[in-house]
Design a protein that fits this description.
Shape: globular
Number of strands: 9
Order of helices and strands: EHHHEEEHEHEHEHHHHHHHEHEHH
Helix content: 40-55%
Strand order of the largest sheet: 1-2-3-5-4-6-7-8-9
Low-confidence stretches: 311-321
Structural class: alpha/beta
Distance between the termini: 32 Å
Mean pLDDT: 94
Strand content: 5-15%
Length: 394
């Protein structure tokens, strides 16, 4: 385990600007808007902003403001932020990103979670934060071996927390980070006090009567599942079957990498128009830049290839019918209405019997740490508060 600072060579930034300036743009059918993908005019303007106005050095400084480290775990290079709270009784918490995410998506919640006293909160709600990059994502590179699915990542997180001296800890995640956090609860049930997630996939099993009595809102969520499969799941098909082929295009073209990620920010967030309606433009470009500057579009996609079954179902069985150990730790679910696939509570409780908190918000989408950081921080604090009390009384 050794200290780490992000220091992107200036030559890499100059190369990015050169490539963006020399982008070979495709034609576009008139009047189709976003219906067939990212519109040409929008992407040209965003690429120009990325080239001429976005300040990577400022984003780099934001990240380097927090202590970072590199550890070798199970044959992988694991990059992580380790931000300790000034409060002596703080609870250790692992925050895990998903795709197309990075450690940068948590920047706005680090302060409120580690130092609530300084942000108008109760100091008893403080956390020590460990924020790792999934192997193959961002600065956790290179990816040297296959097999890095959610279960293996969870095992690495448990080992990381052991090395840091945390006997007990909590977990939070969204997207693939939610799946990893749930697996962490299975991998270390005696050490994980609870798991908080902002995504919980719920799939009907086809059993008779399973959907009887669901209200209109739940049926709408089930309809969104069919819509997602028909309209939005192309990225899953590619990344879970041919990640290497996709990697050539995304690693060679920054405009291609930009379009691939920005489309997700628009379709999965609370945006009603442009991605920037929901997520700050510079925050979004920080994430895109991390994928580009580390050349990890392909290795990040490998996570989908390795964990296709894990990402299909987060309950007691995966799509191959393999039984998973039941989750014994308390689970909190924060539901943001504009998320790409909001869960159906009845199906969630069928799959995860230990749900102790379920919060339905009236705004926000798939990237709550960037879209609605105050709501997310409040729910994380509220979920873990009684678990802290139980820990203290024990």
């Amino acid at each position: 385990m050794r200290p780490f600072r992000i220091e992107v060579p200036q030559a890499d930034l100059d190369d990015l600007r050169r490539r963006l300036a020399g982008t070979r743009w495709p034609d576009e059918l008139p009047g189709v808007g976003w219906s067939r993908g990212v519109p040409l005019g929008y992407l040209k303007e965003l690429a120009r902003y990325w080239r001429d106005e976005f300040d990577w050095r400022a984003a780099e400084a934001d990240l380097n403001h927090h202590p970072q480290f590199i550890a070798e775990i199970d044959g992988a290079t694991v990059h992580f932020l380790h931000v300790r709270s000034p409060e002596p009784g703080a609870l250790p918490l692992v925050l895990t990103h998903g795709w197309p995410g990075s450690v940068a998506e948590f920047i706005d919640i680090i302060g409120p979670l580690t130092d609530p006293r300084a942000h108008g909160g109760d100091p008893q709600d403080a956390f020590h934060l460990v924020i790792p990059s999934i192997p193959g994502f961002g600065f956790s590179r290179p990816l040297r071996t296959p097999g890095w699915n959610a279960r293996r990542v969870a095992g690495a997180w448990a080992e990381l927390m052991r090395r840091l001296g945390y006997r007990e800890f909590a977990a939070h995640g969204g997207d693939a980070g939610a799946v990893i956090s749930m697996e962490l609860g299975r991998a270390a049930p005696g050490r994980v006090l609870g798991v908080h997630v902002t995504m919980l996939l719920t799939f009907p099993s086809g059993e008779p009567g399973e959907l009887d009595g669901l209200d209109a809102a739940d049926h709408e969520r089930l309809a969104r599942l069919a819509w997602f499969d028909a309209e939005l799941s192309g990225y899953i098909k590619l990344q879970s079957t041919r990640p290497q082929t996709l990697a050539y295009a995304l690693t060679d073209s920054p405009a291609g990498q930009l379009a691939w990620i920005v489309e997700r920010f628009r379709e999965w967030s609370g945006s009603r128009g442009l991605p920037e309606d929901a997520v700050d433009r510079d925050r979004m470009l920080t994430t895109v830049s991390i994928y580009w500057l580390t050349a990890t579009a392909g290795s990040a996609a490998q996570h989908y290839y390795e964990g296709a079954g894990d990402l299909r179902r987060t309950g007691d069985a995966d799509r191959r019918g393999e039984r998973r150990p039941p989750l014994a730790v308390p689970v909190g679910v924060a539901v943001f209405p504009r998320d790409v696939l909001p869960p159906v509570r009845r199906l969630a409780e069928r799959d995860v019997a230990t749900i102790t908190r379920w919060t339905e918000f009236d705004r926000g989408g798939h990237f709550p740490a960037m879209e609605q950081p105050d709501l997310l921080v409040g729910d994380v604090r509220s979920f873990f508060r009684p678990l802290r009390e139980k820990r203290w009384s024990a």
